Amino acid sequence: MLTATEMLGDESAGRGGCKRKADAPTGRALFKQLEQTARLGCGCGGKLLPDLPDFSKEMPRRCKCYDNFTPMQTHLLPAGWFSTLHGAVKPLAAATRAGVSLLTPLAFPFTANSVCYQRDLSCFFEHTEIEHYCDAQGKPPQVVSLKSEEFVRNESHSLHGDAIMPTPWRSRGWFWYSSQLLSWIMRPNAKLTGDLNNAMVETGLAAALRRGPVLGVHVRHGDACLAKEQRRMGRVCRSLEAHLARVREYARAHNIRTAYLATDSELVLEEARRNTEFQFLFLPNVARHRETPKVIWDKTVAQRVRKGLNKHNYREAWLATLDAMLLAKTDVLVGQMTSTLFRSAISLRAAKCDCLLPFVSLDAPFCSDYGVKAGRSPDGAFWC
């Protein structure tokens, strides 16, 4: 369990990070199991998944028969994009423990016919199941609802500890296990991979990483600066300088002069441009605000869905995903764990190297417990 808010020191210097013990299970071994269970469907035929719109008939169907397994299915709920994404972790954990596949989670609020007809996470990532599911007998998959308090609490690590993890992986802890599951969910599809590779070059991050270590900075402002949202999520908006102050000594000691900045604030970006201490790299075209929005992001997402403007949610989710993935390429991370994007970047980075690289959280330790207010910061409790 990762309970610290900071890991900076000689033991984590450079690019080695804190690595796993030689006899500990590996992320590669868990991915191999996930690949095996991803192939376990039920039956073969022509019936499509229930509740999919008519245009799903255009989807390619590559069926394979496994008569003894019923896969799971879930609908992701509208919220902030990374909160929505984290909603897939508990269904995947339940499916993995049961030894069956999780059908690629449906993500209607963040998909639109005009940009991606599947209307699920395959609009961004690889399918969570290897074979598309269909069933000649009309037997539906087992639906797990994220609206069900019983399901969400039954899959809560905060409430049940490592008992919700399969035995072979318990020695690695919940941070490792939940990070690996998120990393599996977020394996980029071909289009996202192409955009990520282009962004690595266009932002200058690829070249910077070849020269040496790069600092990753995430400054969350936007709707997070609303007084009501700060109370709800137990966080305070902090300046770019507040972030840099926590890693300045470490950066100087390791000659880190380049930083990748992910932020939703145009004012923070302008501050970074004036900074002479670091060369700041950033992704262009990301939606950034000069003033604090009047409503939280969750409501903006829902309003767009009601107006049939899902494509705008899709576009902003796409760019936010690129931002988080670029952040996860850096060597030292500083941000606030009350932000789901920052926690996602920490998890993706840890899953990739099967280690824990240096980081600083300005407020809370890591948590991953969708639908449960299990996070704790000096400013209050928050939803994980």
Would you write up a description of this structure?
There is one protein chain. With about 375 residues, this protein is an alpha/beta fold. It folds into 2 domains: about 5-20 and about 195-380, Rossmann fold (3-Layer(aba) Sandwich); about 25-185, no CATH class. The protein has 14 helices and 12 strands. The protein has helices at about 25-35, 80-85, 90-100, 150-155, 155-160, 175-185, 190-200, 205-210, 225-235, 240-255, 265-275, 295-305, 310-325, 340-355, and strands at about 5, 20, 70-75, 140-145, 215-220, 260-265, 280, 330-335, 355, 360, 375, 380. The strands form 4 sheets. It has a 6-stranded mixed β-sheet, sandwiched between helices. α11 links the parallel β6 and β7 (about 280). The chain is globular, with a radius of gyration of 21 Å. The protein starts with 5 loop residues before the first strand and ends with a strand. Residues about 40-65 have low confidence and may be disordered.
Quickly describe the structure:
The chain is of the alpha/beta class. It is 37% helix and 10% strand.
Strand content: 5-15%
- Which term fits the overall shape? globular
Element-by-element helix/strand order: EEHEHHEHHHHHEHHEHEHHEHEEEE
Q: Biggest sheet, open or closed, and with what strands and sense?
A: 6 strands, mixed
**Gyration radius, in Å:** 21 Å
What's the tally of helices?
14
Total DSSP E strands: 12
Count of folded domains: 2
Strand order of the largest sheet: 1-10-8-5-6-7
Which consecutive residue ranges, at least 5 long each, have pLDDT under 50? 41-67
Mean pLDDT across all residues, rounded? Answer: 86
SSE class: alpha/beta
Distance between the termini: 15 Å
Name of the top-level CATH class of the largest domain:
Alpha Beta
CATH topology descriptor of the largest domain = Rossmann fold
Helix content: 25-40%
Q: Tell me the CATH architecture of the largest domain.
A: 3-Layer(aba) Sandwich
